[in-house]
Each structure stands twice: as structure tokens, then as C-alpha cells.
Amino acid sequence: EAQLVESGGGLVQPGGSLRLSCEVSGFTFSNSWMTWVRQAPGKGLEWVANINQDGSQKNHVDSVKGRFIISRDNAKNSLYLQMNSLTVADTAVYYCAKGARYPDYWGQGTLVTVSS
Amino acid sequence: EIVMTQSPATLSVSPGERATLSCRASQSVSSNLVWYQQKPGQAPRLLIYGASTRATGIPARFSGSGSGTEFTLTISSLQSEDFAVYYCQQYNIWPPLTFGGGTKVEIK
């Protein structure tokens, strides 16, 4: 069974940086597109970024372009989200998920809180 | 960017009754639409893809229909475990993938 475990969330000041990680098991990571989706407290879902199997194709939502970078390490079965220049609006639970068009397996999420 | 609009925002239904949730796209997404269920404190769960195909392990009481810009998720007889928030999402034109704002199904 697919398992995805996010880590790296926490409290950060505006303008700061965080790197989220997602370690996966139970499926062939190197064959899978991967996605980050976030959910602000009490709000709906927002797609953040996705990446193809070998990392050669990356897509980011406009609101994070130039600040966030999605990446992966297939040797470590791990997905990453480097987040820079964080703002209060980036406060959310960040989920990693398997798939490109409609993620079918999701992690439990990691909370990122941006506050002074 | 395709905008997805769900209605109603909240649906009050008694256990055993039918629930009908709507999702509208700002332009045609063909049948490239999915539905997710999310319970408090949990990750979303894929219910329906391709507008009408149930994902693995999803009970037959969940059904999806529609194409183009109008879609419906129907829960034929609500069980206690079905009270949750439901999201639609299009994947016809991406990036970005876009979600609706959600419909909360609550106990009447």
C-alpha cells in the first residue's frame, strides 16, 4: 500500500525559508509524477506544484513562482518543496500526493505556519 | 485558469437520504474531473475520476455524472461515515490544476 510521509513543517517568520520533505513507499516512486497541494486553515485545497518522473518537468502555481521549488531524489524515494520568501498567506497544511492530473494517494500533511 | 464553482456550500441531509452535489467549470473540461472526500484532520481521498468512474474501493452509493461544464456527485443513501467535505477538481487544462471551494455535507 502506498505511504507518503511529509516532514519539515513548523513555525517560520515572514521572509524566512523552509524545506518540506515527503518520503514514500509502497509504489515505484521513480515511475510517478508527484504533486504538492496545500490547504490554509479552514479553507479549500490549492494545487502548488508538480514534477515529472525524472525531474525534468516542473510546474508551479503562479502565486509561488520564483519563491518555491519542487524537486525529487529518486534514489531516496523522496519529494521536496523548497519554500523561500514565505508570507503569512503561505500558512497551510502541505500535502504531498502521487500523480499528476488527479493525485490518488496523499500523505497526512505537514503544517507550515508563517507568523512573526 | 479554469475556475471551479461548487454548490451548495453546505448541504444538510439525514442519514439514509440522497445527497446531490454540484460542480460547475468556467469553461469545458470535457470529462476530466475528479471528486475528493475530506474528513476533519484527514487528507483528501479520491472518490471519482473521469467524471464518473469510481476509484478503487469506493462504495457503489457514490456516483458521478456530467461533462463539459456541469457535474454532479450523488450519494444515494448517506451513511454516517459520508459526512465530510467534498471537492471537485479539473485536470483538462493544467497547470494549474484547480479545485472547487468544496461542499460540506452535514447531518440534518
Model description:
The complex is a heterodimer of chains A (116) and B (108). With 116 residues, chain A is an all-beta fold. Chain A is built from no helices and eleven strands. Chain A has strands spanning 3-7, 10-12, 18-25, 34-39, 45-51, 58-60, 68-73, 78-83, 92-98, 105-106, 110-114. In chain A, the strands form two sheets. In chain A, strands 2, 4, 5, 6, 9, 10 and 11 form a seven-stranded mixed β-sheet that branches. Chain A has a four-stranded antiparallel β-sheet with strand order 1-3-8-7, with no helix packed on it. The mean pLDDT of chain A is 97. Chain B is mostly beta strands. Chain B is 0% helix and 49% strand. Chain B is built from no helices and eleven strands. Chain B has strands at 4-7, 10-13, 19-25, 33-38, 45-49, 53-54, 62-67, 70-75, 85-90, 98-99, 103-107. In chain B, the strands form two sheets. In chain B, strands 2, 4, 5, 6, 9, 10 and 11 form a seven-stranded mixed β-sheet that branches. Chain B has a four-stranded antiparallel β-sheet with strand order 1-3-8-7, with no helix packed on it. In chain B, strand 7 and strand 8 (70-75) form a beta hairpin. The termini of chain B are far apart. In chain B, 35% of the residues are buried. The mean pLDDT of chain B is 97. Classes of the chains: A mainly beta (116), B mainly beta (108).
Chart the SSEs and their pairings.
The complex is a heterodimer of chains A (116) and B (108).
Chain A: E1 3-7, E2 10-12, E3 18-25, E4 34-39, E5 45-51, E6 58-60, E7 68-73, E8 78-83, E9 92-98, E10 105-106, E11 110-114
Parallel strand pairs in A: 2-11
Antiparallel strand pairs in A: 1-3, 3-8, 4-5, 4-9, 5-6, 7-8, 9-10, 9-11
Chain B: E1 4-7, E2 10-13, E3 19-25, E4 33-38, E5 45-49, E6 53-54, E7 62-67, E8 70-75, E9 85-90, E10 98-99, E11 103-107
Parallel strand pairs in B: 2-11
Antiparallel strand pairs in B: 1-3, 3-8, 4-5, 4-9, 5-6, 7-8, 9-10, 9-11
